[in-house]
Amino acid sequence: MEFGLGYIAVGLAAGLAMLGAGIGIGRIGGSVAEGISRQPEAAGKIQLVLYVAAGMIEGAALFAIVIALLIALKLNGSVDKTIGSGAAHKVEQGQ
After folding, report:
1. pLDDT tens digits, residue range 4-49?
2. Rounded distance, CA 44 to CA 11, Å?
3. Domain 4-74 belongs to what architecture?
4. Contact between 32 and 18 (Cβ < 8 Å)
5. Torsion angle defined by CA atoms of residues 23, 15, 72 and 9, in that order, rounded to the nearest 10 degrees
6. pTM (2 decimals)?
7. Site positions for Reversibly protonated during proton transport, renumbered to this chain (predicted)?
C-alpha cells in the first residue's frame, strides 16, 4: 500500500510525457499543413523538417516512458524482496 502513490506518480509521468509529445507533434503537423498550403513547391523540404522534429519529440517521450518504467520496476523490486522471503511462502502454504 505504501508504494501506491509511487505507482500513481509513475503513471502520471508517463501519461504527461505522451500528452506533451502528442501536443507538440500536433502543433508541428498544423504548422506543416499551413506551410505547404502557402508554398506547395517547398512541400518536400517542409515534410523533411516535420519528420526530423517529430522523431526528436517522439524520442524524448519514449525516453521519459523508459525512465518511468525503470522507476516502477525499482518500486516493484523493493516489494519483490519481501515477497521472495520465507514469510511469504509460509503464508501461501497456510502455516
Report:
1. 788 888 889 999 999 999 999 999 999 999 999 999 999 999 999 9
2. 38
3. Up-down Bundle (1.20)
4. no
5. 110
6. 0.69
7. 58
